[in-house]
Amino acid sequence: xxxxxxxxxFNHDLIDHALNQRITASVGxxxxxxxxxxxxxxxxxxxxxxxxxxxxGDIITADASVYxxxxxxxxxxxxNGSKQGAKVVKAKLVTACQPPKQRSEICKLSLFAMYRxxxxxxxxxxxxxxxxxxxxxAKARASDYxxxxxxxxxxxxxxGWVKCPPVYESFTADxxxxxxxxxx
Length: 184
Hints:
Elements: E1 3-6, H1 12-27, E2 35-38, H2 47-53, E3 65-67, E4 76-79, E5 82-83, H3 108-122, H4 128-131, H5 135-141, H6 143-153
Parallel strand pairs: 1-2
Antiparallel strand pairs: 3-4, 4-5
């Protein structure tokens, strides 16, 4: 990650420790540092903005998350990883995907689709294999990513990280589930 932009209610030193110092201590110096920037762009649903309008006792936290980024049309509330109010997909398969209008823009499928669209603008993707490559296969082919991931996971601090099972990453940018054998 090249950088992160944060608003309010954060501690720069703690973010730096989590994103930079812990990694440097684990894998050594020489890795690119994550730049931490602060924005003054108000986010209307942030705790600090809500406290300007309401008494602290009137604010009740929810078991959901909200994401927003500069340029977004609006903020989006997520409940269990799906947009709040989205119809729940009754999955016959473990890998069933929400329809595009109901899924989060920051889920793996949406980000992979944006990556593929961007890639198509700058390169030729015309052979069938690349057209139907899965998210997991694309990650496996990203050599710099794999090298950095292997370095991190080989350290004590990150060796216990939970890894996503292949079945949850075996989808194309169109949201089509591909059943792969365990070697992929």
